[in-house]
Design a protein that fits this description.
Length: 302
């Protein structure tokens, strides 16, 4: 079901042709508004990469330079969650294993464990913190447990060549550290999230466990801001919509990958914007573009 206003938006759209500068731009009629929003950012100098596919058929609904590798901030934490999930139940790993936080794990910015007094949590709770709040401290604790090399090996096994978690989370990056927490291309990341949704990332149990952790995500400030869901409570279907997603944010960087299901269809989507963040207006324009893409996705599934 859609409103009369939504129907007018649909009827009023024409097919937007790619510009010569960005031959990687391609969109169906249903996604012309989001396409236009991203095109405006690109013309202003932003680096744009995006992709959306129909979850059932795999049909590409929207693509903008989706093969380009860009920084993705916290998106790479999904690769860590996949490795952790795959190890549960094998090799002596249990969701009830108690993980201690140590001084080298301490880091600021996103997350809530840094504000809690408890020095230790069960492994599954630590993973839930990563899914729900992109918790940096919890990320470092999990990485210390499984090892970055194991995450890289798992990434290779999944066939991802342009997507990687490069390092632990750091408050400051020195010349000897990886310049980014993670990088990725939207074609690979959208494929990965679609595989998780279908239970095909490693195996069904691993996939669905990761999807459950990501469904806790409270950050619905980008693409998902258009879906009308409660940021603090959207694990269950709401108005026939279900969502799991992961976001990444840095100075001049917005990134989101997710899976949205509705009564008419399901989509896997991903958007990364690298833009000049000199003014508040620049940031607001970038977030508005992501919101516009979200409206297009909502129309398609609902």
């Amino acid at each position: 079901m859609v409103t009369a206003t939504t129907e007018r938006r649909r009827r009023g759209r024409g097919h937007l042709q790619p510009t010569g500068r960005h031959r990687g731009f391609e969109a169906t009629e249903n996604f012309s508004a989001g396409f236009q929003a991203l095109a405006h950012l690109a013309l202003d100098g932003a680096q744009v990469s995006a992709r959306a596919i129909d979850l059932l058929t795999g049909r590409v609904l929207f693509s903008v330079d989706d093969h380009v590798v860009l920084p993705t901030a916290s998106i790479g934490k999904v690769l860590l969650l996949l490795e952790v999930s795959a190890r549960l139940g094998v090799g002596g790993y249990s969701r009830y294993d108690i993980l201690d936080r140590t001084s080298p794990d301490e880091v600021e910015d996103s997350g809530i464990w840094q504000h809690l007094h408890t020095p230790a949590l069960p492994l599954a709770d630590v993973a839930s913190l990563v899914g729900a709040a992109s918790d940096n401290l919890a990320t470092n604790v999990l990485l210390r447990r499984v090892g970055l090399d194991a995450v890289r090996e798992r990434t290779d096994e999944l066939g991802l060549q342009r997507t990687a978690l490069l390092d632990r989370v750091r408050d400051r990056r020195g010349p000897d550290d990886a310049p980014q927490l993670s990088v990725g291309s939207m074609d690979e990341l959208v494929w990965l999230f679609a595989a998780i949704a279908r239970g095909e990332a490693i195996d069904a149990t691993t996939s669905y466990r990761v999807a459950d952790w990501l469904a806790l995500n409270v950050d619905l400030s980008m693409v998902a801001s258009a879906f009308g869901l409660d940021p603090l409570s959207h694990v269950r279907s709401d108005h026939n919509l279900t969502l799991f997603n992961k976001t990444g944010t840095d100075k001049g960087l917005l990134s989101e990958v997710g899976v949205l299901r509705g009564p008419r269809a399901g989509v896997a989507y991903g958007v990364t914007l690298s833009y000049r963040d000199d003014r508040l207006a620049d940031r607001l324009s970038a977030r508005q573009a992501m919101h516009t893409i979200g409206l297009d996705l909502l129309e398609y599934v609902h």
